[in-house]
TrEMBL record:
Organism: Paramagnetospirillum magnetotacticum MS-1
PANTHER family: TRANSPOSASE INSH FOR INSERTION SEQUENCE ELEMENT IS5A-RELATED
Annotated stretches, region: Disordered: 155-177
Domain Transposase InsH N-terminal, chain residue ranges per copy: 17-112
InterPro entries on file: Transposase_InsH_N
Pfam families per record: DUF772
Transmembrane intervals: none
Highest taxon above the source species: Bacteria
Protein name: Mobile element protein
Length: 177
């Protein structure tokens, strides 16, 4: 016989841990072990004002961008929705259940403002490559370059025939460099 579930009284207190709800083999757990953003606030301090309302934590924004890149979420609007809903994403961003996800417009304002002015993203990339080299994931003995030269007839006033185009020396120079 199928019984009906009776709830006499709703729970007064709930115990919920994001830590327990993110699987041990989740990709973000593997990434989190290597992400060290402890000095990011100090690097960006000169680019923030001492007056006005509190800003969005730059570590949160970088962690959200990492999720976007790793999970193939190209839209910042969609990224904010996903972080709001997904427990593993909240865990990675250190948001907990009650943390507020920033508005999608915050990313473009910071990318075109203080992130660009401070050269933060380049430094993060370089630190990531250094860490990968230290861990033995990347070596410095070789590299790949895409120096493809594609002839284009984009100007109707100054048309270029198909056999003509960039001189071979320009192609060779790009490959040598």
């Amino acid at each position: 016989m199928m019984g009906e579930r009776h709830i006499d009284q709703p729970a007064l207190f709930y115990e919920f841990s994001l830590e327990r709800h993110v699987p041990a083999d989740h990709l973000l757990r593997s990434i989190d072990r290597f992400v060290d953003l402890c000095d990011i606030r100090e690097q960006l301090r000169p680019y923030y004002s001492e007056t006005g309302r509190p800003s969005i934590d730059p570590e949160l924004m970088i962690r959200m961008l990492i999720i976007g890149y790793c999970m193939g979420i190209r839209s910042e609007r969609r990224l904010c929705e996903e972080v709001h809903l997904n427990l593993a994403y909240r865990w990675f961003c250190r948001l907990g259940l009650e943390g507020t996800v920033p508005d999608h417009s915050t990313f473009s304002k910071n990318r075109h403002g203080r992130f660009r002015d401070s050269d933060l993203l380049r430094r993060l990339f370089e630190a990531t490559v250094e860490r990968c080299m230290a861990e033995g994931l990347v070596g410095g003995e070789g590299f790949a370059v895409d120096a493809s030269m594609i002839k284009a007839d984009a100007n109707r006033q100054r048309s270029v025939p198909g056999d003509e185009g960039l001189p071979d020396e320009a192609t060779g120079q790009a490959v040598r460099e």
